[in-house]
Amino acid sequence: MRFAGVDIPPELVFAHADGDVVFFVGAGASMASPTNLPNFTELVKRVAQRTGAEEPTKRALKAPDVCLGRLVRPGVDVHGLVAQEIRGRHRNALHDAIATLAAAPGTPRIVTTNYDNHLHSSLRAIGAKHSVFEAPAMPAGGDFEGLVHLHGRLGQPPRRLIVTDADFGRAYVTQGWAPAFLREVFAEFVVLFVGYSHDDRMMEYLAKGLSSKTRERYILIDRDKAKKWAGLGIRPILYTRDQHSMVTATLERWGAWARDTPFDRAQRIRRLAGETPPADPDEDDFLVVSLDDERLAKEVCAVAKGDEWIDWMARQLPFKKLAGTEDAAVDDRVLSHVANWAAQAGVGTEAFRHLDQALRDTPGPVHPMFVSAVLRRITFEQVDDEQRSHWLRWVLDYAVGQHGAELQWLWGSEVNLTWPDTMLLLNHLANQWRPSTGSGFWALRSPRLASGGGLEAGMRRLLAVPSQPDKSRELLSWLTAYLEQAHRRVTSAGRSFDPWSYARSSIAPHEQDRRAPSEPEQVLVDLGRDGLAQIGAVAPELADAVRGLWFDSPAPLLRRLAIDNLWKAAEPPAGVKVSFVLARRMLFDNEVRHEVYGLLASAVPDLPGDEFDDLVQAASVGPELSAVRHDDPTVAVRYRDRAAFELLHWLVKYRPGAAAPPALAEIERRFPEWEPSPHPDLSRYTETGSRSIEDDWPWAPLEFHQMLADDAGSAIARLGSELPDDVERGWWGAGSMLERVVGEWPDDGFVIWDALARVEVRECVILGWSTAPLDESQMDRVAAVLSAGDLGGLAGPVARLLHPWTSDTALSRRWVHRGDGRGLARRAATMVDDTESLSGATDLHSAAINSAPGVLVDFWIDVAVDDARTGTYPGGGLSSEVVSALEDLLATHSRLARASLLRQLNFLYRADPAWTAMHLLATIDPNKLPWPQVEEAWGILLHGQFSEDLLQSGLREWIPVCARRVGQGSEITGDLMRLAAVVAVHSTMDDAERLSWLTALVANATTDAVVQWSAEVGELVEDLEPAARASLWGRWMKPYIALRVGGAPRLLEAPEITAMLGWLGGLDAAVNVREGVDLLLRTSVGISSETGSWRQVDVPPEALEVAPGEWARLLAGLLSATAHPLAPGVAHWASGAHTTLRALGADQVSMATIRSEFFRLTGNDLDERTA
After folding, report:
1. Which of 431, 678, 1124, 1148 could form a disulfide with 1089 if both were Cys (CB 3.0 to 4.6 A apart)?
2. The whole model's pTM is what?
3. pLDDT 10s digits, 1067-1117
4. Domain chopping of the chain, boundaries
5. Name one Pfam family in it (predicted).
């Protein structure tokens, strides 16, 4: 990157942006005005002069530390003299530039061999927080932040300055703390040296810290002094000879760039808009570098308008990548922006020639994004015919098998393509072949197209245009060649059968053809059929020629098309059509059977008598035995006769008044069992349609009821005959009819019960009684029958009889108060087969509801309710009868019964806490039982209701335990967190206890679970009255947020903050919103960048009206703390919030920050989005 005329390697710029660069600063940084400090050599001269010693020779000055060492003698404080020489000066612009640049990524990292404090002053001046380290107390070189004075600094006792050879010996040899620090620095960080010269003695010492395991090192140096550095493994960054001020200008420009936000850079790009790219090399380089950032690449594309901009863009890496001339990696999002720019800038515009020239020498392959962008442009936007034609041809040269769908958009669009373009595009679309896959009838298929919808739409529009003979001839010539090529493809490698030709039963629309008309095979068949028909209307001679060509084609599909056209054509007369079929020996040609039969059906009524007789004679002969191709002559003859039999019947059928020919009578005499096929023209015929269970009823319910009344024995016998021996329990035609009969006439059920003892019959009878309007006497009879009979296999129907699925309360509870009903329930419980209900069940909750034990549990719950209402059991708790029944069910059908009882846990606990605690609560304790068993139980009980008493029975304390044990992605997490939210919002526990409970919940739950809980709390609070919301905020919500912001019981994360925004959205007082904003902004955590419904922001626009300034401050702070791109839902909310807050006149500083940070995180300018 170029700053003030100096090229800084991009990798160094990017390393600096990542906070990965250490700046080493030498004496040259302090020599400029107004600092004007001497370099090391000049410093030695000044100290020597002040001691009265002779001036060191030029040779001696090559080791200035040695010179200073020689000046040391009693009474001469060399260290103090050095300090005096560098004291009392002012910092210069280079100090400020270094400090600003070093601090731009955050905390600065600077190492200096200078003794002055000017870098420290510069860092303080810009407000950069930093630590200062001074020799010999060095930090860890691989992990330090701040300013390191490697050789000491003013402010220390002067004796600690590293100035003499003895000092350097201690630092670099005997004590060795300097090279130890340097080795870690050079190994961990990229280094940039500033203010060092080629003969600098300090560099010799610094080189002692270099090793083979170091990262990149750079030095800013003038051009004439670059060679020495290669030997030290240091890469020189060159500026013009003796123009040392360029160093300051370069670092200043670099620092300004580093401090810029992406939004600042976008604004700078916008200022560069013009007819030509900028002439300033720095600005040009800035644009080049901006193309590496997808957010800024979009801005560059927005200003790049005109011929010269196209030429400039064509020289850049993203364009070269799109054009296929560069293999370097480029962000796909950048490529997308540049591809769309190129299509907009150079396709359909006056700049078209420039883009065309830029692509002319492209070796390819062109990037698919580029091709797609061009296709979208010429399909959906206004482009003149010449350019559209040019770019279509360009696309077809590069669209190698991956743009079929987009080309179909163009084909199916309203764009008026020229005729040559139409044929080019059609040929391209229809010649993308799918490789052979699978086996059987469709082992080889038609053109490989992602979808045929576009192909069909374009074809319909093409056929809607009045035919022009020249174009029609070209179109049908192409189709002829294409279909024959398709025939050759699918019959190659020894295959004689052509599935392509039989992709449909009929050339004309037919009920047997259920494949979508948009499929490419269907579209091309329609093209041939309708195209030839249209030509026949305007150019019959041409139609005859094409038809003749197709009759002679080896492709059966073309022959079918030809016969279909002859069949539908008004001319020639019927006799000529039939003669044509006979002459071409097509009468028994199976490849064209449907079309030949159709032609004959339309021609036979109008044939003269002698011609009809000739046709019958030809049909009577049947196909030649050589064409039958069967090894057994008897079978071949039978096949021949069958073909003649079907055709003769067909001819008689369509010839009014025609008698059966003698040949047909002879065949029927020899094969009396033969019946003519209803569809002899088709090789197969499939009936379709939907059926209901009533379609399988042998009799209507009223009819069977009457049969029972007239002759019960006969009716029962006939019913038994309708029941197959291998029928399984479940629906069968006669059975469902039987349920309906018994449901309407319950007494019929007793007749059937006594006559047929089969389980499946009695099941239907019981189910019929379950919905029947039984009177008391009938209920007595049902109870008697069931009590006396064998209920093996009938426990489920009996349970459903006692507790039917109905909204009719009287019907569902009619057995509850009856002793015989309760007796049946006890008896049915002993005959349940659990394996049937649990077989294949993946959801115990649903299995229990639909099982006999589950239904019986519901029955006994109704008994308990009935006892309570009627005062039958006034002693409190559950009656002994109910307890006994429920315990029996638990003992014999534990999983299903317990699941059903857990659904009623709230009622049972209120009715009998002691029994419920012993038999149910003890089975769901997550502290004592295996988690799979507990998770299964909680998955059911979480669907129920929870009173405060029930929660206090232990459930409330178990919620955090379950939150710890539940696995990531468990199905119960959502319901568990919903219950936890109810506890937080509605529980009557005191607030100190509530906060303790919430702390335990958060400590145990996953982040996802806590986020779900936070969102659920927001929804519950939103439903409260304002006064209640304010009360909750002060009592526990604000203290809870304070705990979480403080890191208790664990660090707060962005998704949780995002969910908490909904809490603030429910506050009605500005002061409360301010309190919440102050709390949330104490964190350095931003807003969520993850997707998922629980991570979206649930704050409606009207909530922002309470305190727009506070919301703007909060949004600005959260966006500034967010490191990763926003999830789409969060970005959408932030955009809408910005619009609302701007309309409400929120603080402009915050609004500017929101706009800038939103651009950084999404690449979109909010002002443009809302313009």
Report:
1. 1124
2. 0.75
3. 999 999 999 999 999 998 999 877 665 557 889 999 999 999 999 999 999
4. 2-256, 261-400, 572-687, 690-773, 793-923, 925-992, 1010-1169
5. SIR2_2
